[in-house]
C-alpha cells in the first residue's frame, strides 16, 4: 500500500513535536505525539498519589487506566483519561518527570505499544518519541534522529514555558533537561538512541525553517 511512516526520535527540546506537526500538515499525514501518551499515564499516577518509580504499584493500576487519543477538527491530537480531556493538564511541568519515570517501566511500555502501532497501520504518520525507530516502528520508511546541544534545547524550552505562561529559570530548565536526557538514554527498557538506519539531523545551528526543510528533504528522498 502507499501508507508510510516517519519515525522522529530524539531528546526533549530538540523540536520534535513542533517540527513534526508542521511537516505533517505540509505532507497531509497524521502527527502522533507519543510523549503525550506517556504524559497521560504519568498524570494518572500523579493524581493517584503513587510513586512513579514504584514499578509494582504503577504496573498494578495499569489495567484500570483508560487512555484514549482522538483527533480534533483542527487535526490535532487530544488525550483523554477515563473520558476526560487532559490535553492541557499533561503539559504541566511537574508531569514531565512523572512521564519520564513511568516510561522506564517495561509494563508501561508494553501497555502502550499496540496503541502506537495501530495508529501507523491506519494511516501515514509522522510519529515522534524516544524509541519509535528502534522499537515501535522498526520498519518505518523514514527514521530521523533529531538532536541539538543541551544548552540550545534548554534555551528553546525556557522560551516555550515563558510563552505558555508557566515560566521557569533557564538554569533549572537546563538541569532538569540534563537529568531527563540521562534517565531516558540510560534506562534498560527502550533507551533513547538513534536507530542504525536513522538520519541524524542536528538543529543546534538551524532555525525553525531550516530544520523543517532538512526533515522534508530526508522524507522526500525516502518516500
Ligand atoms: O516527548 P515528551 O517530552 O513529551 O515525553 C515525555 C517523557 O516520556 C520523556 O521524557 C520520555 O521519558 C517518555 N517517552 C518515552 N518514549 C516515547 C515518548 C516519550 O519514553 N516514545
TrEMBL record:
Please state every residue range assigned to the domain named Cytidylate kinase: 6-220
Q: Which Enzyme Commission number(s) are on file for it?
A: 2.7.4.25
Predominant location of this chain?
Answer: cytoplasm
Q: Where is the signal peptide?
A: none
Q: Which reaction does it catalyse?
A: CMP + ATP = CDP + ADP; dCMP + ATP = dCDP + ADP
Q: Which Gene3D superfamilies match?
A: P-loop containing nucleotide triphosphate hydrolases
Q: Where in the cell is it found?
A: Cytoplasm
Q: Which GO terms describe its biological process?
A: nucleobase-containing small molecule interconversion; pyrimidine nucleotide metabolic process
What GO CC terms are in its UniProt record?
cytosol
The record's keywords, sorted A to Z, are:
ATP-binding, Cytoplasm, Kinase, Nucleotide-binding, Transferase
Q: Which domain of life is it from?
A: Bacteria
**Which of this chain's residues are annotated to bind ATP?**
10-18
The molecular function terms in GO held by this entry are: ATP binding; dCMP kinase activity
Q: Which family does it belong to?
A: Belongs to the cytidylate kinase family. Type 1 subfamily.
The record's PANTHER family line, in alphabetical order, gives:
CYTIDYLATE KINASE, CYTIDYLATE KINASE/PANTOATE-BETA-ALANINE LIGASE
Q: What is this protein called?
A: Cytidylate kinase
Biological source species: Vescimonas fastidiosa
Amino acid at each position: 500500500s502507499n501508507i508510510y511512516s516517519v519515525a522522529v526520535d530524539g531528546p526533549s527540546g530538540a523540536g520534535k513535536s513542533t517540527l513534526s506537526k508542521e511537516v505533517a500538515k505540509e505532507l497531509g499525514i497524521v502527527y502522533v505525539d507519543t510523549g503525550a501518551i506517556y504524559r497521560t499515564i504519568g498524570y494518572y499516577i500523579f493524581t493517584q498519589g503513587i510513586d512513579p518509580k514504584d514499578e509494582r504499584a504503577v504496573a498494578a493500576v495499569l489495567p484500570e487506566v483508560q487512555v484514549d487519543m482522538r483527533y480534533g477538527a483542527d487535526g490535532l491530537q487530544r488525550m483523554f483519561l477515563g473520558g476526560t480531556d487532559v490535553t492541557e493538564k499533561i503539559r504541566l511541568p511537574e508531569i514531565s518527570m512523572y512521564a519520564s519515570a513511568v516510561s522506564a517501566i517495561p509494563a508501561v511500555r508494553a501497555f502502550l505499544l499496540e496503541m502506537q502501532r495501530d495508529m501507523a497501520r491506519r494511516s501515514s504518520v509522522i510519529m515522534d518519541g524516544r524509541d519509535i525507530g528502534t522499537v515501535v516502528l522498526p520498519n518505518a520508511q523514514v527514521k530521523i534522529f533529531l538532536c541539538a546541544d543541551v544548552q540550545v534545547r534548554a534555551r528553546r524550552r525556557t522560551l516555550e514555558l515563558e510563552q505558555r505562561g508557566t515560566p521557569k529559570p533557564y538554569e533549572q530548565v537546563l538541569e532538569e533537561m540534563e537529568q531527563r536526557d540521562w534517565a531516558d538514554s540510560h534506562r534498560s527498557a527502550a533507551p533513547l538512541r538513534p536507530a542504525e538506519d536513522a538520519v541524524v539531523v542536528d538543529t543546534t545551528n538551524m532555525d525553525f525553517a531550516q530544520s523543517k526543510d532538512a526533515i522534508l528533504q530526508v522524507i522526500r528522498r525516502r518516500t
